[in-house]
Design brief:
Blueprint (H helix, E strand, L loop, with lengths): L1 H11 L10 H7 L3 E5 L2 E6 L1 H6 L4 H6 L4 E10 L3 E6 L3 E6 L10 E6 L4 E5 L11 E12 L3 E8 L2 E8 L12 E6 L5 E4 L1
Antiparallel strand pairs: 1-2, 3-4, 3-6, 4-5, 6-12, 7-11, 8-9, 8-11, 9-10
Length: 191
């Protein structure tokens, strides 16, 4: 039905306002979206812009699943922010976007599909493109084309989606893992 509505709208060449609470429906049919919370517009933009660059945690979670690691800003330079995250330690995050909040507490936010999992402490000596955090697998859900893992890192929990390939071993609950997050995929939001 989504494709029929979109086709009809494009064929007639008319502006259409479509109200939905279904994020997938909104993202597949909209050229521009407005995300509202309690009657207040939080952000307006293209679906990909809202997904990649949410202005706050409400928008981030409305347009998809978002991992959030809150921390105290320990140091700020023109190019990096060092967050002290309870149970994890210091995370040095590059400042990639001009709109990084100047707050004493920030949330390092990243999507589950951008997370890389490696067995045990393999990440420490692995790909230097990633920030590596030790964790333990709490649960897994096989979804066919991917497996969604719940991972405890420090005192917090994150979600990691890993593509499924035939023969690729899955991580079992209780398995120690290294969680890799590419710094360019981290969005710093107000805590």
């Amino acid at each position: 039905m989504r494709q029929d509505l979109l086709s009809l709208q494009r064929r007639l060449g008319i502006t259409t306002i479509f109200v939905t609470h279904d994020q997938e429906e909104a993202m597949t049919t909209a050229d521009r979206m407005a995300v509202m919370d309690q009657g207040i517009v939080q952000q307006v933009g293209s679906p990909s812009n809202l997904f990649d660059f949410p202005c706050n945690r409400f928008v981030a979670n409305f347009v998809g699943t978002m991992n959030v690691l809150e921390g105290l800003v320990k140091e700020r330079t023109p190019s990096t922010i060092t967050l002290s995250v309870q149970g994890i330690g210091d995370m040095i995050v590059p400042i990639i976007h001009d709109d990084t909040p100047a707050a004493p507490r920030l949330a390092a936010s990243f999507r589950p599909h951008t997370v890389q999992l490696e067995s045990g402490n393999a990440g420490k000596n692995g790909d230097a493109r990633f920030l590596w955090i030790p964790g333990v697998v709490e649960r897994s859900e096989f979804l066919g084309d991917s497996t969604r893992y719940g991972v405890k890192v420090g005192e917090q929990h994150i979600v990691a989606d890993q593509s499924h390939y035939s023969g690729l071993p899955q991580f079992l609950p209780g398995a120690p893992v290294s969680v890799g997050v590419e710094p360019t995929q981290i969005r710093l939001l107000p805590a």
